[in-house]
Amino acid sequence: MEIKQLCFAADSLPLSVIVAAEVAGISLATDSSLPPGSSPFCVLSDGLKLQGAYVLLRFIGRIASLPNFYGATAYESSQIDEWLENAHVLSSGSEFENACKYINDYLGVRTFIVGHYLSIADIAIWSALAGVGVRWESLKKSKKYLNLVRWFNSISSEYDNVLSQVLLKYVSKKGSTGKQTSSKQGAATNNKVVTGNASDSGKSINKTTGEVDLPGAEIGKVCLRFAPEPSGYLHIGHSKAALLNQYFAQRYQGKVILRFDDTNPAKESNEFVDNIIKDVETLGINYEKVTYTSDYFPQMMEMAEKMIKQGKAYVDDTPREQMQKERMDGIESKCRSNSIEENMKLWKEMVAGSERGLQCCLRGKLNMQDPNKSVRDPVYYRCHPVPHHRIGSKYKLYPTYDFACPFVDSIEGITHALRSSEYHDRNAQYYRIQEDMELRKVEIYEFSRLNMVYTLLSKRKLLWFVQNGKVDGWDDPRFPTVQGIVRRGLKIEALIQFIVEQGASKNLNLMEWDKLWSINKKIIDPVCPRHTVVIEERRVLLTLADGPEQPFVRIIPRHKKYEGAGEKSTTYTKSIWIDYADALCISAGEQVTLMDWGNAIVKEIEKDQDGTIKKLTGILHLEGSVKTTKLKLTWLPEINELVSLSLHEFDYLITKKKLEEGEDFLDVLNPCTKKVTAALGDANMRNLKRGDILQLERKGYFRCDVPFIRPSKPIILFAIPDGRQQTVLK
């Protein structure tokens, strides 16, 4: 079913409907001859009509081919509906700036209004601002609402071709709509400038949005690759690379290839391949296909032989340590002048994996005097008579990353290779090898490596923790792997926001985990259910003299501000359990508040001869005001249905924020990285599922790792940092 015609009054332009149709590529015939004040409507191809700007906008959202234009889930669609209902506030003079401030604050950690894709909510807000005209333009220049302006300009730039035409046709200089004007107000430009930041010099910056552009990129023709080595699980550093590839692919309407750089069989396995695919899908990366560098081994062997015959490569049997020294000193190898015939003879020995071949490697004949040491005859092939996890023992030699990467990038049609700036000195080598191979040049785009405080990202070092039993596996919640941080309670939306905020800059940065966990808290706090626990050790019984003789149950919300969290049953009894730490803070005769019940007065505190509190007695004082009490206590009823819990808290694996060059991580290992506390929880927690996130009242946020199985086996909950926790476990 298609839209045949959009009809509206000249004084009531449905700008958002027109913009949405243009962005979605939906052809729209318009008729602006309706009487003033008339509500817009559209005529469908079957003769049916739909009336109302936001009704039409939702219809376009549903029929458009753009991904998630009306939300990825029912929840996101409902969020979009809420934004549409309130978008009109931006056209109200008195409420305009308040609305701008609200949206600006909301966009502080977001790229789009709802979810992670452009939606009709973005279209509605963008159109409302664009339709305001001069007032919005002056606000943009005031720098009061930087987040809002960033978001507005980003959309303007991304869809410049269609939006500039719509604005040129419908938005006047005075800010009214419906009159044609020659003004280009609101239209985005694609002018480029070079940033003055030394660390980003030479990068193409979009003047409108401040975003970094890929050099020479063309819409619809960009092909990128995310190429991890299958020698471990993906960690947070890989996440940045993966998400940046996806960001540029979406921005340029291109594609991403997931390629496994499997040239080192001694370290690689199918387990890592399977889990990397799992991690990539967890991150929401939309890849075109999966390939392997090993798919191209036959072609690379042919290329190596071709380069030997062209005199561009030679076989070297210099011992490794001597070779490294000669490279550092710029001394040519004695084998560099070998004849092509001798090189081919030794190459065949390498291919056969003979004793003589094992003494050799293949090197490129580049420039041993180049100041850039990476260009000093790098190694192309080494003998490794080790079975490959995909192709078995077919090969006795394997290409190095330096040889394979430029070859496969060009052969696979990659237009831009995203690499972290730690490889900067190897860029000249990459281009020179591609040139010697006589292959199409691939543009390299550099971004800064993501480094986190108190964190090791080297897969070799992470493997040490796994092999030595310091962690429970690659998905251990103390690990910076994708599976580890998700298992600890991080939402992928938080990770995406964290990465997007950093952008594609080349500035080196050491990031705090607190920033990431603060973003995470803002996502989980509004929706996660609340439950109650009491620490099992030395818990204290408070007996209420006038408490209920028979237990009774009330049904209360699991989250007082979010109905979607559901309900829970709370049992009220004459005796209740409280934390020992709370009991220590209570004075005899003090009035306290029992959360979700009311006030009570503690009359007596019973202690043993060592001064340890053993029991409290008191009376209810439900008419008392909760505003007058100092202590707000969590409690549990004295019933058999309480569940056993095991609360796990975690700390960093090392005690130093950043390791210095050459410093051994074994010297800064944290001796205590996990603390387990036994507790009791309310009976409703029997219904928790693995992966559920909840808040334990006055204790913090937790993720359920092992749900209820039987009374003798505790539920295991992992503590989720909230961005404010600075304490070290003891």
UniProtKB/TrEMBL annotation:
<dbReference type="InterPro" id="IPR000924">
    <property type="entry name" value="Glu/Gln-tRNA-synth"/>
</dbReference>
<dbReference type="GO" id="GO:0005524">
    <property type="term" value="F:ATP binding"/>
</dbReference>
<feature type="domain" description="Glutamyl/glutaminyl-tRNA synthetase class Ib anti-codon binding">
    <location>
        <begin position="528"/>
        <end position="617"/>
    </location>
</feature>
<dbReference type="GO" id="GO:0009791">
    <property type="term" value="P:post-embryonic development"/>
</dbReference>
<dbReference type="GO" id="GO:0017102">
    <property type="term" value="C:methionyl glutamyl tRNA synthetase complex"/>
</dbReference>
<dbReference type="GO" id="GO:0006424">
    <property type="term" value="P:glutamyl-tRNA aminoacylation"/>
</dbReference>
<dbReference type="Pfam" id="PF03950">
    <property type="entry name" value="tRNA-synt_1c_C"/>
</dbReference>
<dbReference type="InterPro" id="IPR049437">
    <property type="entry name" value="tRNA-synt_1c_C2"/>
</dbReference>
<keyword id="KW-0547">Nucleotide-binding</keyword>
<keyword id="KW-0030">Aminoacyl-tRNA synthetase</keyword>
<dbReference type="GO" id="GO:0048608">
    <property type="term" value="P:reproductive structure development"/>
</dbReference>
<dbReference type="InterPro" id="IPR050132">
    <property type="entry name" value="Gln/Glu-tRNA_Ligase"/>
</dbReference>
<keyword id="KW-0067">ATP-binding</keyword>
<feature type="compositionally biased region" description="Polar residues">
    <location>
        <begin position="187"/>
        <end position="209"/>
    </location>
</feature>
<keyword id="KW-0436">Ligase</keyword>
<dbReference type="Pfam" id="PF00749">
    <property type="entry name" value="tRNA-synt_1c"/>
</dbReference>
<protein>
    <recommendedName>
        <fullName>glutamate--tRNA ligase</fullName>
        <ecNumber>6.1.1.17</ecNumber>
    </recommendedName>
</protein>
<dbReference type="InterPro" id="IPR001412">
    <property type="entry name" value="aa-tRNA-synth_I_CS"/>
</dbReference>
<dbReference type="InterPro" id="IPR004526">
    <property type="entry name" value="Glu-tRNA-synth_arc/euk"/>
</dbReference>
<feature type="compositionally biased region" description="Low complexity">
    <location>
        <begin position="176"/>
        <end position="186"/>
    </location>
</feature>
<dbReference type="Pfam" id="PF20974">
    <property type="entry name" value="tRNA-synt_1c_C2"/>
</dbReference>
<keyword id="KW-0963">Cytoplasm</keyword>
<dbReference type="GO" id="GO:0005829">
    <property type="term" value="C:cytosol"/>
</dbReference>
<dbReference type="InterPro" id="IPR020058">
    <property type="entry name" value="Glu/Gln-tRNA-synth_Ib_cat-dom"/>
</dbReference>
<dbReference type="InterPro" id="IPR020056">
    <property type="entry name" value="Rbsml_bL25/Gln-tRNA_synth_N"/>
</dbReference>
<dbReference type="InterPro" id="IPR014729">
    <property type="entry name" value="Rossmann-like_a/b/a_fold"/>
</dbReference>
<keyword id="KW-0648">Protein biosynthesis</keyword>
<comment type="similarity">
    <text>Belongs to the class-I aminoacyl-tRNA synthetase family. Glutamate--tRNA ligase type 2 subfamily.</text>
</comment>
<dbReference type="InterPro" id="IPR036282">
    <property type="entry name" value="Glutathione-S-Trfase_C_sf"/>
</dbReference>
<dbReference type="InterPro" id="IPR020059">
    <property type="entry name" value="Glu/Gln-tRNA-synth_Ib_codon-bd"/>
</dbReference>
<feature type="domain" description="tRNA synthetases class I (E and Q) anti-codon binding">
    <location>
        <begin position="632"/>
        <end position="705"/>
    </location>
</feature>
<feature type="region of interest" description="Disordered">
    <location>
        <begin position="176"/>
        <end position="209"/>
    </location>
</feature>
<dbReference type="GO" id="GO:0004818">
    <property type="term" value="F:glutamate-tRNA ligase activity"/>
</dbReference>
<feature type="domain" description="Glutamyl/glutaminyl-tRNA synthetase class Ib catalytic">
    <location>
        <begin position="221"/>
        <end position="525"/>
    </location>
</feature>
<dbReference type="InterPro" id="IPR011035">
    <property type="entry name" value="Ribosomal_bL25/Gln-tRNA_synth"/>
</dbReference>
